[in-house]
Write a structure and sequence with these properties.
The protein is of the alpha/beta class. The chain has 2 domains: 174 residues, Nitrogenase molybdenum iron protein domain (Rossmann fold, 3-Layer(aba) Sandwich), CATH 3.40.50; 118 residues, Nitrogenase molybdenum iron protein domain (Rossmann fold, 3-Layer(aba) Sandwich), CATH 3.40.50. The protein is built from 10 helices and 8 strands. The strands form 3 sheets. It has a 4-stranded parallel β-sheet, sandwiched between helices. Strand 5, helix 7 and strand 6 form a beta-alpha-beta unit. Helix 2 packs across helix 5 and helix 6 packs parallel to helix 10. The two termini are 38 Å apart.
Length: 310
């Protein structure tokens, strides 16, 4: 995926070029200049940004809630959004590389990587086709989500310094909520005995969560790239890890098929527990339609299921 652009990306790149050439010929129309719109590649970034922007900006997303950003293919409608946005917030570290490839030419000045400056906190992908690359799921540690919020505040203040005090106040109020969330997660997860603090998930998206809150990653099928189907050896490895750790509770992710986890259950026993959110928020009304709600959903389910055990 990351080495070779898809036909869709090529076609949309040509569309970008055409739009870029055509725009000056249209004159200074409303469509030819950026609107007061911030565009986020994912729904997680969208929610963080709207809490800082408040009512001063319209914040939109490319990958809608409930969808997987890893293998996302942009549409012409996405290109239209990007054209009118003043800034495009993306995660980086291989999560939304399609956005970088598509937009980093003519729109490179709009692109803002929220993980910039966080290299000292990075965990690497340990195995699989992207072994050694950065794990992008930094927001799964709430203390790192706080750093995303600080970066968003900096960006908005730079673009709109007259409202800098408002962005600062919004960010500080939201960060207080995030720090309360972080404390709550630590209290809740402390209820789980040490010998049960293992996470078996489909994708290794909980590595930062595990480091922050005292868990071990027991097993997984996808090291990062969920668009690449697990091999037979991946399944064998997952079964061996589950058996060696004694884990009997497996979590599925909301944006992925249950099929691989059902295969693990047949081979290793145990049970499939609740669904967790990682790469995306839930749809409106799902109970996980904001970052804070998503993290609470995950923690409540992890605590309940691991206390129940087999």
């Amino acid at each position: 995926m990351y080495e070779n652009a898809s036909a869709v990306l090529v076609a949309l790149s040509l569309l970008t070029l055409v739009l870029g050439v055509a725009t000056p010929l249209l004159g200074e129309t409303e469509e030819s200049t950026p609107e007061k719109v911030i565009l986020a590649t994912t729904s997680v970034i969208w929610d963080l940004a709207r809490n800082v922007a408040g009512d001063l900006w319209t914040v939109e997303y490319l990958v809608e809630p409930g969808k997987n950003p890893h293998g996302y293919e942009p549409t012409p409608a996405d290109m239209a959004k990007a054209q009118r946005a003043a800034a495009i917030l993306y995660n980086g570290f291989n999560l939304d590389g399609w956005a970088v490839k598509l937009l980093s030419g003519q729109m490179s000045g709009k692109m803002v990587r929220l993980t910039e400056g966080l290299e000292n906190y990075v965990l690497k992908v340990p195995d699989g086709p992207y072994a050694g690359r950065e794990d992008p799921h930094m927001w799964m540690d709430v203390s790192l989500a706080v750093k995303y919020v600080d970066r968003i505040r900096e960006v908005l203040t730079e673009m709109d310094p007259e409202n800098g005090a408002k962005y600062k106040a919004n960010a500080e109020a939201y960060i207080r909520q995030l720090l309360e969330l972080d404390d709550w997660i630590r209290r809740e997860t402390s209820k789980i005995p040490a010998d049960r603090r293992f996470l078996v998930t489909q994708e290794k998206a909980f590595q930062y969560f595990a480091r922050a809150y005292g868990f071990k990653v027991g097993a997984y099928f996808y090291s990062i790239a969920t668009e690449i189907e697990p091999t037979a050896s991946d399944l064998v490895s997952a079964v061996e890890r589950v058996r060696s750790s004694g884990v009997c509770v497996y979590f599925v992710e909301t944006t992925l098929s249950r099929r691989t986890m059902e295969t693990l259950q047949r081979e290793a026993g145990g049970r499939i527990a609740s669904s967790l959110y990682a790469d995306s928020l839930g749809p409106l009304g799902s109970g996980a339609d904001s970052y804070i709600a998503m993290m609470k959903h995950n923690v409540e389910n992890i605590v309940r299921e691991l206390l129940r055990w087999c």
